[in-house]
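Pasting two entries for a bug report.
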Amino acid sequence: MRKNRKGAWRATGIVTALATAAAIASVTPVQAQTTADLSAWITDGWGGGTVTSQPAGIDCHTTAWDPYTTTDPPPNPTGACTASFEVGTTVTFTATPDPGSYLNDGPTPNPVTVRAGYNFTWAMFCPADGLCSAG
């Protein structure tokens, strides 16, 4: 005698489908990123200066460096070179050269609208005597 299992398989499939749907419905959706980091990158033009942001958060300074008078590596920028801002915030930058230096280029881009992920601006300061790595 042969047993009819067709109904049992159908019932198992329905129960599995319902359990899968319930598991999918219980997953918490991924939250949208509400803040993101924004960095000021001061390229090595051998001059000194500061990049600041409005709204406040970034106050990044680099010191002038002459590769022909020292074998030491260039100094790292100091201060707050990265800050967290709300996504959608428009941040405007000001670049101020130190005495004896000038702003060769940047900040670029300016302003920056903060987006989820990586955000940056950059600037290059050169010494006033014309010796600049940017040529």
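Entry 2 (this is the one that rendered wrong in the viewer):
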Amino acid sequence: MTSPKSSSRTAPSGVTASTIVTSLLTIETPGRGFVDLTAEVAKFARQAGAREGALMLFIRHTSASLTIQENADPSVLADLMTALDRLAPEDAGWRHDTEGPDDMPAHIKTMLTASSLHIPVLKSELMLGTWQAIYLIEHRARAHRREIVLQFLGATA
């Protein structure tokens, strides 16, 4: 194991987590692909008066998921879809195909990605990196209505 050549850290800050604010976000997806949720999540944080704490997202489905990924180059998202399709192809002879050939691959893709995310909030800002965005990943071929629970825990303005 090696030590870092250089590191720095801000002074710890603390707040009393006296507020929990929750909202249900409903998204109509166009079908397979990425849907950028960043603006909606930031809007929720503003409406909640989030100052410092944690913002959590939880998707209430087993064939769609959440991720934080690059927002600058759309080819990244296309390549990620290609990778997921290679890991869980529709033509692999799955037994579970009740809702069609994309049903079981969608469940596998959800298992490989995430059903919840945690984003720190500091000074009323989501602590996302410059090139990061929050995405819902629709794993099914047809359009779906998806629900995401948004919850902020922390101090408000």
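Dev reply: Rendering is fixed now. As a check, the viewer should reflect this: The beta strands are 19-28, 33-36, 50-59, 64-70, 116-122, 125-126, 132-138, 145-156.
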